[in-house]
Design brief:
With 416 residues, this protein is an alpha+beta fold. The protein is built from nine helices and 20 strands.
């Protein structure tokens, strides 16, 4: 008999705690449920935090409805009206009500321009230009009175190549007119009618205009209807703008010029004329704008047309030129300047020795690198003057003297 075996009632103890399969499965289920519960509680906590932060941001941007501001605080926090800049600073006469409900039929400008339109409309005329050989070429437009002697300024493209030009005054009276002079370069023309008691337009200076100033484009009455008035603002005053192979002074506005109003005046809020409207001049790539010929420039051209019937003395070198950016200069190592595309035989430039492929770098003593700069330098001279031209050819700079010709006498269409 084994001596190590103990006798008596002794309790048997397992060497490790024993768990059944059901107990293990139950404990695993409890752990999974606890994990899921913690995920849900964490998600709810983060959502509540987001709501609280969002409510705080909204509340911080809301006006304090429990605070009554005084007049100084209200003025400090009040946003500027969109059109106050167009009508001048506020004063006692422009007191605002506490509330201003939106009116969809309210005028564009807060200031009444009715009197200015009525005063300027007396000088506005409507023009009907007929071509008896081709009735389909009949054109209608506008113009305005320059002087009591019956001179009327309008667009050359409106009245050119027409047999019968009828001018109707603001009171409905019609007159047959004739062309005193016209200029295709600037698209301006002067008509003459035999009428008395005309009221000439009051001329203003475009130099005083600033961006945002209100302006009105006026058109003459057409087919028994009242004349047109289109409101807008000045966006830019551009002197020496490049157009039609020449330089003119332009006003850019936010007005869409109707063809019937083309040739009519552009007036300010006091009724003075600042420009002549045209629907034919590109707006220089500016979206929503139109170009108006500045009245100072119009007067200078009209005065010359009344004297001689045309613009004399416009200088012409006698080449077809292109901007330096329009040619592959890097392939030929060309400098900045005016590239000579072609030189017609017999022109002043050909007589001076210029050739196609040359690059003009100086006109006189002025360095030129663009078409506009070249035109501005050339226009300092008159036809018949001599000017020194510096040009680049095959790695060398050369000088030659050109006797400028009159652009009106040039039969070949050239741009410089």
């Amino acid at each position: 008999m084994d001596d190590r075996r103990e006798t008596g009632n002794t309790e048997y103890r397992e060497p490790f705690p024993y768990k059944t399969y059901d107990e293990i499965l139950s404990e695993k289920t409890r752990k999974e449920r606890f994990h899921h519960a913690m995920v849900v509680v964490t998600g709810i906590f983060l959502m509540l935090c987001s709501i609280i932060v969002g409510m705080g941001m909204i509340w911080s941007n809301m006006p304090n409805v429990f605070h009554v501001s005084n007049e100084s605080e209200r003025a400090a926090h009040e946003p500027e009206r969109a059109f106050w800049g167009l009508i001048g600073p506020r004063n006692a006469d422009h007191a605002e009500p506490d509330t201003a409900p939106y009116d969809p039929e309210a005028p564009l400008f807060m200031e009444d321009v009715t009197e200015a339109v009525e005063a300027a409309s007396v000088s506005v005329v409507s023009i009907t230009a007929e071509n008896h050989r081709d009735p389909s070429q009949t054109r209608t437009g506008s113009g305005f009175v320059l002087s009591k002697k019956g001179y009327i300024v309008t667009l050359c493209s409106l009245v050119s190549n027409c047999d019968n030009i009828v001018v109707m005054l603001n009171d409905g009276t019609c007159y047959t007119s004739f062309i005193v002079g016209s200029d295709r370069v600037t698209d301006l023309a002067v008509l003459k009618i035999n009428a008395a008691g005309l009221v000439p337009a009051v001329i203003g200076s475009p130099e005083i205009l600033q961006s945002g100033d209100p302006v009105i484009a006026l058109g003459g009455a057409q087919d028994g209807t009242a004349g047109s008035a289109s409101l807008g603002t000045i966006t830019e005053f551009c002197k020496n703008a490049f157009w039609n192979d020449d330089l003119i002074d332009l006003l850019y506005t936010g007005i869409r010029i109707d063809p019937a109003a083309s040739g009519g005046p552009l007036i300010g809020k006091t009724g003075v004329v600042f420009g002549l409207c045209s629907d034919r001049i590109p707006a220089g790539g500016q979206s929503g704008t139109s170009a108006v010929i500045a009245i100072d420039f119009v007067q200078s051209i009209a005065s010359e047309l009344i004297k001689t019937g045309y613009i004399a003395g416009r200088p012409m070198v006698g080449i077809q030129g292109a901007a330096a950016d329009d040619v592959p200069r890097s392939h030929f190592s060309l400098p900045d300047g005016l590239y000579v595309v072609s030189v017609p035989e017999g022109s002043a430039a050909a007589k001076a020795g210029l050739l196609a492929g040359d690059m003009i770098t100086h006109v006189g003593d002025v360095r030129v690198s663009t078409l506009a700069e070249a035109y501005q330098a050339r226009n300092r001279y008159r036809a018949g003057d001599t000017v020194e031209i510096t040009f680049y050819r095959r790695g060398m700079n050369y000088h030659t003297t050109v006797c400028l010709t009159d652009r009106n006498e040039t039969s070949t269409p050239l741009n410089f």
